[in-house]
Design a protein that fits this description.
Strand content: 25-35%
Strand order of the largest sheet: 4-3-8-7
Helix content: 10-25%
Largest sheet: 4 strands, antiparallel
CATH architecture of the domain at 62-172: Roll
Number of helices: 5
Structural class: alpha+beta
Oligomer: single chain
Number of strands: 8
Radius of gyration: 34 Å
CATH class of the domain at 62-172: Alpha Beta
Length: 176
């Protein structure tokens, strides 16, 4: 760095004080290497990662399910047998037999998180079992589960999608 000195005389001593160089002089002598390019921060946006296989990387634990609600357990068993035999589709059965308001949508309940439904319902959708090595869901996707008794009656439940967030410690410990 170039510096100029200003000499001053005070009483009996000679004092040397540095004087700042003009900004133009400092700018021309100071060159620092760039540590980051202008577009380096945008690089990740163009990585072309396929997020469709892991859409919920940052999403909380949630699911989509359909259900059929009836008053009697025997009715639920009959409907489940017809669905298993293939004589009736799940959504058709919901429209035809369910006493819930969701019957008009084929029993579809939409997306929900743990704690939204009654405990017995949540246990079917979000419940996990310990295999010794890891916790896995109790019920498979698209499996018709039931009849499950709740305060509202008997449910047949079909889990359409389920996302168990990696960061949700409750799911990892089987506490959902």
């Amino acid at each position: 760095m170039r510096a100029s000195f200003l000499l001053c005389t005070c009483a009996s001593a000679l004092v040397v004080t540095p004087r700042a160089a003009p900004p133009q002089a400092m700018a021309s002598t100071r060159t620092m290497p760039l540590t980051m390019g202008i577009f380096d921060q945008l690089k990740k946006a163009f990585d072309n990662e396929d997020y469709s296989k892991s859409p919920a990387k940052y999403e909380q634990t949630n699911a989509r399910a359909s259900h059929i609600l009836v008053k009697a357990e025997s009715d639920a068993m009959e409907i489940k047998e017809q669905i298993a035999a293939g004589t009736l589709l799940f959504d058709e059965a919901a429209i035809k037999f369910s006493t819930c308001n969701s019957a008009r949508q084929g029993g579809k309940l939409g997306k929900f998180v743990p704690g939204t439904m009654v405990k017995e319902f949540d246990d079917v959708v979000f419940g996990v079992k310990d295999t010794g090595a890891e916790f896995v869901p109790k019920h498979e996707i698209n499996e018709v589960v039931g009849p499950i008794q709740t305060q509202f009656g008997y449910h047949l439940i079909k889990i359409e999608t389920r996302n168990m967030a990696d960061f949700d410690f409750r799911a990892q410990e089987g506490k959902l």
